[in-house]
Design a protein that fits this description.
This protein is an alpha/beta fold. It folds into two domains: about 270 residues, Aldehyde Dehydrogenase, Chain A, domain 1; about 190 residues, 3-Layer(aba) Sandwich (Aldehyde Dehydrogenase, Chain A, domain 2), CATH 3.40.309. The protein contains 18 helices and 22 strands. The strands form six sheets. It has a seven-stranded mixed β-sheet, sandwiched between helices. Strands 9-8-7-10-11-21 form a six-stranded mixed β-sheet, sandwiched between helices.
Amino acid sequence: MPTTATESLSDAARKFVEGGPHKLLIGADWMEAADGRTFETVDPSTGEAICEVAQAGAEDVERAAQAARAALEGKWGKMPAAGRSLLINRLADLIEENSEELAQLEALDNGKPVTIAGAVDIPQAVAHLRYYAGWPTKIEGETIPVSWPNMFTYTIKEPVGVCGQIIPWNFPLLMASWKISPALAAGCTLILKPAEQTPLSAIRLGQLAQEAGFPEGVINILTGDGETGAALVDSTSIDKIAFTGSTEVGRRIGARCGELLKRVTLELGGKNPNIILPDADVEAAIKGSFQGIYFNTGQACNAGSRLFVQKDQFDTVVSGLAEAAKKAKVGPGLDTGTQFGPVVSKEQYERVSSYIESGLEQGAEAVAGGNGGGNGDGGGYFINPTLFTGVTDDMKIAREEIFGPVLVAMPYDDLDEVARRANDTDYGLAAGIWTRDVANAHNLARKLKAGSVYINGWGMVDAAAPFGGYKASGIGREMGHANLDAYLEVKTVWTSLK
């Protein structure tokens, strides 16, 4: 790892990184992959390797599934609900205690600004665990007054079983907490597979879970690539798959789980409309829309990537956004002055750059950015915040999820038109409305086909509030009671009183 990056790490983070090659957590032990394979994880701010990590295969998946099943049928399955609550809270405490180290690992491995990781990702991961830590003692069945005479009928809610959880690279630790929290609260055991681009915080999470006192086999960590994820999906030893990632991969996972009749939840992509109405607070809308697309370098499934502005205000809004984009500081994640870090990998850099080139080729105008490159040093994967005008609804940059710092701005005439155009997409994850008119806000919110609608803000999340999408944006919900239910089976018990 480059010396400059090493020197900026805390002692704890440096010790962890230099402790590689990092292994798989299966049951109680950290072990090498069965076939001995490893891969390098890369610092996107430099393009240089950080350390080596074990590459799990199908045999490792089965070993982890057996460990998870043993825990489910053993100590974890017999633990009182209050015991699960205590352990989940203890894990939250340990993440909070090690927040500086974890924020640095996220910045190093993902490229996101360390200040953002410390202020957003880590605290939200802690909050998510603490929210679900309150649920185990409140999972209740029902007694049902059925029509049969002399019959006592009730329901029991039980854990769905062993869960394979596949998380993306854009919010590594936060997405891990989104997945493991409801599973643990429901009493499931799990195998967590982080993205191959960002495995480090998941490995550290596994260490903290052991320190918290979780019984062996409850939380297993398998690092690897798409082959590892496919083995999780294919395994008949795993009862449920939870996946967050691209719609393309989600379709394949959903199809395979359908063949196996395996429980599945999918949180997928979005091409999200952000609508500024004529009566909006324009200054607030510009600031909110800027963060809505460029936060996390645009690498968010709910990014507000399609901006609709009433034609009379279009030039004012575009001018404000372009000015802010040109002033943005793009740089290495570990630099505390960085506003936006690099995209996560060379592959992602090339993907986003190809969309920028496509927009230019199809006649759109880049009023900010647009060169496909950034102003970072050292060969990292930097892309400047890019803003396109002159965009039509049929252009590739207006229809496909880019997952980078690229915004397309388009004018509209009236509410009916903008609602129709906003819904003209395969996706339905999120949408935004900026207005001072309460009636317009709620009428338009009802018309928009999206799982989350933000009014006079963007991207608000809370562990208690369900998050997920319509159409090609997924199946099921993250967060809230809705996600807890996805990890529970309902058993109906009939008892004759004769």
